Amino acid sequence: MFQKKPLQAIAVALFSIMVMSGNAYAQDAQRGEVLFKKRCKGCHRLTDAMKTGPGLLGVTKIRDDEWLNKWLKNPKEMIRSGDPVAVALKAKYKKTMRTLKAMQDEGARSDIIAFLKKNDAENGK
Ligand code: HEC
Fold it and tell me: For residue 113, which of 78, 38, 63 has the smallest C-alpha distance?
């Protein structure tokens, strides 16, 4: 079948990849939600209301993945390195988010980012 209809086979393969990556993305967001409740909720709401830190609704629209990834890994280091957004956040909130052990794992960071994106999408951001 693959030899006779190569285009069809490619289409099927591409479609499967799309479906699988869609599912993987949903799973990432689900894991991210669990992590968020454990590690972030104490300081952040998922609305735009302030807690200890700023509300995170819409954050994936104002910061890109790379910035979020670096921030989650080590906020202090980002401020120290002079990242203008991080420096401005510190000036605004007068405190600095801790470097979290749970965020030293690349997969955990991308799960959290997937969850924040889902939260934004579901709330029209
Ligand atoms: C102990 C409190 C605390 C915890 C726990 C915490 N944060 Fe924060 N976070 C802050 C504060 C305070 C800021 C404000 C900026 C600063 O630190 O200088 C902040 C800033 C941020 C920002 C930047 C917001 C913006 O407007 O760009 C993001 C994103 C963020 N936190 C995500 C998270 C995530 C995700 C977690 C969980 C893995 C988390 N934070 C855990 C206190 C916390």
Answer: 63
Pocket test of ligand 1: the residue of 34, 44, 70, 92 to mutate, having most ligand atoms within 8 Å of its CB, is 44
pTM of the model: 0.87
Instruction: Ligand 1, residue 112: give the atom nearest the CA.
Output: 35
Average pLDDT rounded to a whole number, residues 87-91? 96
The CATH number of the domain covering residues in 28-122: 1.10.760.10
Alpha-carbon gap, residue 53 to 93, rounded angstroms: 7
Q: Delimit the domains of the chain by residue range.
A: 28-122
pLDDT band at 28 (very low <50, low <70, confident <90, very high): very high
